[in-house]
Write a structure and sequence with these properties.
Blueprint lengths: L1 H66 L7 H15 L2 E12 L4 E11 L1 H10 L7 E11 L4 E12 L3 H7 L6
Antiparallel strand pairs: 1-2, 2-4, 3-4
Length: about 180
């Protein structure tokens, strides 16, 4: 009789309790995976929100930049802006030279050289305010020379002004404008 009871418990363990325990372990694993997925979903949503905000800011900045890059070089207009800025700050432009036009797939740019004289503070204000002009430009070269007796400095500056943006090629290729 005892053997029969032990055999029944062994069979019950083998065919009833072991499968239930295995099923419980599998359910625990599935529960853990679902909790991980749920926790990662919150992180993924937060990352998605952050990336969407970054994209909106980038698109807004790109739109502002494109407003500062006309379809033609409009060099005379740029010279007018530079001259007005120089007059406001006290920088005396001595020479203005139009240089080479450079072409890329996404835009064109015109190199412009100029020399000027001013106090060190005026030169710093002039360089700082170049970015506030309605036209996008970058400084590619800058040399500052001291003139001690007059307490003025001479600068030799090379700028690039951008024009003729090819918006379709930028959107198609994923390229960005130089900044």
């Amino acid at each position: 009789g005892l053997f029969l009871v032990v055999a029944l418990f062994a069979l019950a363990e083998l065919f009833v309790f072991a499968p239930i325990e295995t099923s419980c372990v599998q359910l625990d694993d599935q529960l853990f995976q679902l909790e991980e997925m749920f926790n990662n979903e919150d992180n993924a949503r937060a990352e998605n929100d952050r990336l969407n905000k970054t994209l909106e800011r980038t698109e807004r900045d790109f739109s502002v930049l494109m407003q500062r890059i006309p379809m033609t070089s409009n060099e005379a207009e740029f010279l007018g802006h530079i001259a007005q800025l120089a007059d406001e700050i006290g920088v005396n432009i001595g020479d203005y030279r139009s240089g080479a036009t450079l072409t890329s797939q996404s835009h064109q740019c015109l190199e412009i050289g100029l020399t000027a004289d001013a106090s060190y503070e005026s030169i710093c204000r002039f360089l700082n305010r170049l970015d506030s002009l309605p036209r996008h430009s970058t400084i590619t070269s800058l040399h500052i020379l001291s003139r001690l007796p007059q307490k003025n400095y001479s600068i030799d500056l090379t700028l690039r002004i951008y024009f003729a943006p090819q918006i379709s090629s930028v959107a198609d290729s994923g390229e960005q404008h130089e900044s």
